Batch of 4 targets.
Target 1
Amino acid sequence: MSADLIRRLIEATSEVIESHADQLTALDQAIGDGDHGVNMARGFREIAAQKETLAALPLGEALQKAGMTLVMKVGGASGPLYGSLLMDMGKAAPAGIPTLPELATMLEAGVAAVQRRGKAEAGEKTMLDVLIPVSRMLRRLIQDGRDVDYGTRLVSVAAHALHRTSELKATKGRASFLGERSIGHIDPGACSSALLLGAVVRAVEETLTPTGTG
Ligand code: ADP
Ligand code: MG
């Protein structure tokens, strides 16, 4: 079960990054140095090349190994940041397929690692402006305990959060060099985070039972 999930996660995430690499690069050309698509594609191609090795591992170990690959292979700020996200999600992973509350705990651990690594908070126009609202919404949906479509809700929160990065002034990363001129542009890392979330939701829905708990 876990091997199928890992395979689908790798396929879905690497496909979405590959097919949107030009868009991510264009966003980074506007407020950065224009390498975000290339950086992300390089990292996820490397992960895709390790698909069978990763699928043979427990989910937690696979996430940690994929995270290390991103740290090592992706140039730029985003490699160590996404690497930290995956590594700390992996460290927080349970032995089997995570339940929804366990998934929320993993995501919270990963997001906290990105915050430590990047010394950034919400509102600084970074990937965190998608990751934090998604992580909070997942926890809230679980606490509400109502029968909702988690995937649709999370994807919609991510889409809204992504578009709101346009209004923010960058205070971290290369875009912060532009100051006020960063306003009016969507953050490239927030865009890759929203794309990755959509891919993860699709992969999980395709692999797991309707409750999402396997
Ligand atoms: P670089 O900025 O080194 O060229 P990328 O272009 O690959 O690296 O990634 C840029 C993205 O990284 C930004 O759009 C932003 O979302 C994210 N980012 C940059 N600095 C930080 C930080 N300190 N904390 C969180 N995310 C950051
Ligand atoms: Mg860049």
Target 2
Amino acid sequence: MIRRIHYAIIDSTNSEARRLSENGLDEPLLVTATEQFAGRGRHGRAWHSPRGGAWMSLAWPVRKPPIAYAAIALPAAVGVHRGLRDVVSYAADFRIKWPNDLLVSDQKVGGVLCEQLISGSRADALVIGVGINVDFDLAELPSDLRHPATTLRAAFGKNYDVEKVIEAVSERLAEVIADFEAHGLTSSLVKEVQDNLAYLGKVRSITIGGETIAGRVAGIDDAGRLLLDTSKGRIACETGEFAAAHEAADRNRM
Ligand code: BTN
């Protein structure tokens, strides 16, 4: 059982998990909130976090050199994917949009923000922040989100208990992170991402360092890089923002 601290409202569970980890962590710690007033997404974006969402951050004591966690985005995505299927159904078609957005019917239902606190001391920690849109009115979200969003309620037409989502997702997340910490990015983990990858065989674009490249999604490689077949051959992307090719020109980042 992971130790947990819950807030009715907080700026960001990731920020709070970082503050709580500053003096070192002896064991994993789960920070959750009913609402966040300054929720953070990837690439410095805001993450809208009304009541009815599962807003959680798993602070994880680092036991290996930071490089061992470089591919953390993928095990994090797998943990969230497993947890969502536990709650909703094993038949539900959740897809992982590389590196770690969770989609259902091409709409974003969850996102992950991984942060590493490196101080060179025992205070080193990982913070894996997960946001799942569970059961709130979609009108509570801004209309100009980069990727169309949904909630579990809207996608599956029934009410879901936020607490059950937190329990399932945090448990699965801890399970996969522990496995990844012990064994690295194993072929079975890579396969689980590949089997559930969004846009396989479709043309998408990626923006890396300001440059946007379009290509057909070919999967991920052993190191967890996204493989794109472009007009200049196959490229492996370690990082970058992955978008619909036609969106690249105007909305060019995700
Ligand atoms: C993304 O898709 O951009 C990542 C979104 C991550 C949001 C979660 S909600 C809980 C945790 N606290 C935050 O401030 N962010 C993460």
Target 3
Amino acid sequence: MSKVKRVYTFGDKKAEGRTDMKNLLGGKGANLAEMNLIGVPVPPGFTITTDVCTEYNSVGSEKTIELIKEEVEAAVKNIEDIMGTKFGSNEDPCLVSVRSGARVSMPGMMDTVLNLGMNEDAVKGLINKTGNERFAWDSYRRFIQMYGDVVLGMKPASKQDVDPFEEIIEEVKENKGVELDIELTVDDLKELVDRFKKVVKERTGSAFPTDPWEQLWGSIMAVFDSWNTERAIYYRAMHQIPEEWGTAVNVQAMVYGNMGDSSGTGVAFTRDAATGENIFNGEYLINAQGEDVVAGTRTPQQITKEGSFRWAKLAQVDEEDRAKNYPSLEEIMPDVYKELFDVQKRLEEHYGDMQDLEFTIQEGKLWLLQTRNGKRTGAAMVKIAMDLLREGKIDEKTAILRQEPNRLDELLHPVFDKKAISNASVVAKGLPASPGAATGQVVFFADEAEEWAEKGKEVVLVRIETSPEDLKGMNVANGILTARGGMTSHAAVVARGMGKCCVSGAGGVKINYREKTMKVDGKVFKEGDWISLNGSTGEVYDGKIDTIEPELSGNFGEVMDLTNKFATMHVRTNADTPNDATVARNFGAQGIGLCRTEHMFFEGDRIKAMREMILASDEEKRRKALNKLLPIQRQDFEGIFEAMHGLPVTVRLLDPPLHEFMPHEEENQKDMAKELGISPEEVKAKVEDLDEFNPMLGHRGCRLGNTYPEITEMQARAIIEAALNLKKKGVEAIPEIMIPLIGTAEEFKMQEEIVRKTADKVFAEMNDTIEYHVGTMIEIPRAALTADEVSKHAEFFSFGTNDLTQMTFGYSRDDAGRFLPVYLKKGLLKHDPFQVLDQTGVGQLVEMGTKKGRASRSDLKVGICGEHGGEPSSVEFCNHVGMNYVSCSPFRVPIARLSAAQAAIKQS
Ligand code: PEP
Ligand code: MG
């Protein structure tokens, strides 16, 4: 039996892994290997596979160490050999970083340990090697602090707790009367190391580990553990990342960006991650370690000269100040810049996509620490793919597959109303970190953002800087404003990932957390005051500004055109009003797949006539009330057919139980009695009479039409009359009449007969005809099971997967909110089945229903109109089943079109 390989080494332009091994090595590990293979300078190291994380979760740390010990020891030796260093050496110590790396990047969600291998000997070794005592002791204290926080669990648990290490640093600084870390002397740093060790002993009961191997095993296990921290779990849930993927662990030789003025560290993008423009850009800091750039504690400088000028303009920094204090890398290290520019070009060419790079310069030598496909906004996603297509770097299919359907949503979001914005006053300017328009009430803490949002308030989260703990608050806020941090700060990267408007590094904003205020331009904003952000320009406005719908042309329009070339399924919309129908048509909807007629009965006088119909004691009275509803319905249908002229419109007959149309409060019942000229008791009695224990499974759907055929007659008449009226005006209506909630073929037959008889009557009366079809919804499991019987009569099927999910799982649509969140949290369900189609269970009914339906009627038109019709993975399933169309809400039409094209490409 061959031994399972659990550790993959890389270094010196050799690697055991490759870029296509992301599942096993994680994104970072696979790319570190690949960079070696294409000759990019990368510090040597090794990757422990994601499978080991899964093993660790089931067998624990001791057994895991046994499994990988031999391979890890050999891999560390490989690092030592390449670098000419030794673990714990007092001459030239081998120091490593330990980082997580899942299949897809989860920025800031998991743990990292840097400078591992430091102890009393290694400090001497580092001084010996670099001659820089301060640097050596600073690395040591940083290591103890990080190891203490990450591995020994000393990180503060809540925002009230203080980091014990930070507390000591503050004390030492205060005693010395200095403000900045950089002002601490070698002796101060030695004191920090001493006191850090003491606090570790106090808190954990054990001495700080000095053996590099003990440190290494501790860190590896801590990184595995960080896969299951609350914030990582939340991030996975948000991005639908399966728990079982696990994280890989990357151990890599340390290189130092904090070895003086010829060293530095930075982050770069091969194209603009916010707008998608083809401009190399990024930020760096001289004499700093990796985390300093993203932490937002120092103002990073721009890599390119052009970027530096742009930044200075936005940050209102004059040229003298810029050139002296914030010069670009291009200006101060032209050779390193040139090498970096070549590397980024090579990496983008190699991967055929925008790359996000991390690099370190150690005493004038460039090292690449990471490359990955860069996170980007929805707008940048579309632009970059279309640009790469035009540049001939990718083909049309790849351009389609590069788009994440749900991200299109961002392009459909509102922008500021031009008139409203021209009257608004700019109070501050920051960096355009993530585009879009946001308006909301100021809150200063992430948990408060959550509380306010839960109450239905619109909020803008304002922070000095953000950290991974703020994730939930950022997610619910309309926009994010930070006073510190650059374009690659945590706030900026995370906001772009979420497609959320963000302005970062607005230095003019002075935040006081204790008083919950921010001072801008002499004005004080309190918690709850309104502000607005423009994430595309970095402008911050006073007050609430109206927003309008965006224009959909350019690259977005081109992507949509391209979807038509590949998609085989049509995309329709669920719309009940001419306005919704028009919006959807503008998004490219190819018809209406579901027009819910009950929504037409609620407004104004309509509800009165409806209630009159419900209260009617016999058929004659019911018909009288229905006659009042007929012209209203006819007019509604005319509006919708006109908006959709030339395209099919599926009109569903009345579905909800009549109880829903009646008032339930005593006060309202009295009002209704007065309006209809009857006694309140009569109303109350009828409401009680209609009351059902389980209305979702009660007197609804075709059961209404089969008990009160005159309702179906009225609706069929309204549809046919509307279509014929439009025909006279030269407008083509293509009605498809849909019977809801059937469980047996007989239920359908009875309804169909009423519809056809009514249509014939109207044709005779109006002396004209039109083509129309009668079909049904498949939303009861029995209908799916007997679909071959049903399709002998029904001309089309539309899967109502909301009800089909309800009845297949036995989860009430109205009550599932009580337990579904718990089920999702406990992992009993991977997704909410009302949002993402359950392909294994409900999907079987859909697939079987389609097959059986077409067995009796080969040209049966099949679609879906439940919520799933606009959800990408469900759309892919519908394509696989061979549906003719999916139908979804208007704003999801572009998402469904893209998903349909992707599904067709994947299937071909
Ligand atoms: C369905 O059940 O999937 C459906 C579209 O109908 P409704 O949501 O109106 O019950
Ligand atoms: Mg339904």
Target 4
Amino acid sequence: MKTYRCTVAAVALLLASHALHSPAQTEGHRIATNQDHSVAAIQDTETAAQRDARMAWWREARFGMFIHWGLYSIPAGTWNGKQIPGIGEWIMNSASIPVADYKALASQFNPTAFSAHDIVALAKAAGMKYIVITAKHHDGFAMFDSKADPFNIVAATPFHRDPLRELAEECRKQGVKLGFYYSQDQDWTAPGGAAYKRGNHDRPNHHWDPSQDGDFASYLHTKAIPQMKELLTNYGDFPVVIWFDTPTPDMTPALAGEIVALLNQHPNLIWNNRLGGGYKGDTETPEQFIPAQGYPGRDWEACMTMNDTWGYKSYDTNFKSTETLLRNLIDIASKGGNYLLNIGPDSKGNVPPAEIERLQQVGKWLAVNGEAIYGTHATLFGSEAGSFSTAEKDKEGKPKFIPTWNWRSTTTDDAIYIELFSWPKGSFHLDKLPRTVTSAYLLADKSKKPLKITNSAGGIDIALPVQALDPIATVLVLKTK
Ligand code: JFZ
């Protein structure tokens, strides 16, 4: 779904201005990224050491919970008796729902089953170290107490509670970090908010209801920026992450600069690459895919659904297996990225049982094998992940990456972890190793029984027991010097 709304002219302009003012990649010890903007972002001004300190917890964490939750969980994929194709949180746009009809959902929203305690406990049980929840999605409905705009969960629903406040408290108690997703650009219920094109929305602004029309800068000044201020000041030490989304050309460098000036007041904040206005942010955000080789030199986080929707859809039962989810986590860690895995609570606030079940299973594996994931670095090998086909091309016409799933590897300063998906007969063989192995054992073996190591001209062999210790992934630890 790569239909970012930008004109060819706008792109050409951006590229041209970048070529003209393009700063050197590194300038002394500072990392130059967005210096052609009038408002410099923290990434432009901090030192590499400051950056490492700011990103440290996030790089350690490796695994987070994305929560897409809002009014769209009421229709849950069905409008006027029709199942609406596409992701559930887009239903207002996909079904061209008039603003007044959509806003009327608020009076029915009473998610009394919502438990911040249980959701944070679920994240913990899954081995997740942080949560990012939709504070406001493209539908413009604020899931928090907002004085800046009345279309919010406290003022406009019978629920009257602020789930973000409750989550912040629980996260503090249970030691999980909390971040907020905020749709800064698209807003389908506020005048002037942007909209991506769906269906027959053929007007230049892609609006389908005249009440959406207005001035984008006024929308930013009267709703989005005031709400971001609320989010950044009303929740104590949270949010630690702001997750922007779907920038359009409406977000000019100057307007984005106003947001950056606000972000700059919170020097520990981490924010992604979806603000717009040419700002690169801290993190790349591959969505629903794992890049073949990560993003060398950039922090990155793959966000993914468990089924085929972010926001709850009652009839989407196309859940990935625990095996797939766990392989994805390991694959991502082996390429140096984070995994932001989504849950979509329903209109009562319940997390779908299929999601709970899978998260608990992933958590069981991490409880035994987490040492191979948290705080580790990317593989020292690389070819184990697969190779580029010489015959097949991907969607962009480049050689297609064909993954292989025998094993992955992660590293720390004194260990190499080999996550084995398929169990080799007799021994695990490596042709060459950049370090010297001093001992080997299986991470799931409580006694850490040493495995026999044989070095030869042909490489290194580690003798393995007959049976894998885990049906999905057994971790072989090579202590190194
Ligand atoms: C965006 C959101 O639109 C989506 O609802 C969800 O929050 C996801 C994590 O982020 O995903 C996109 C981005 C771009 C398009 C569609 C969904 N697009 O270009 O049509």
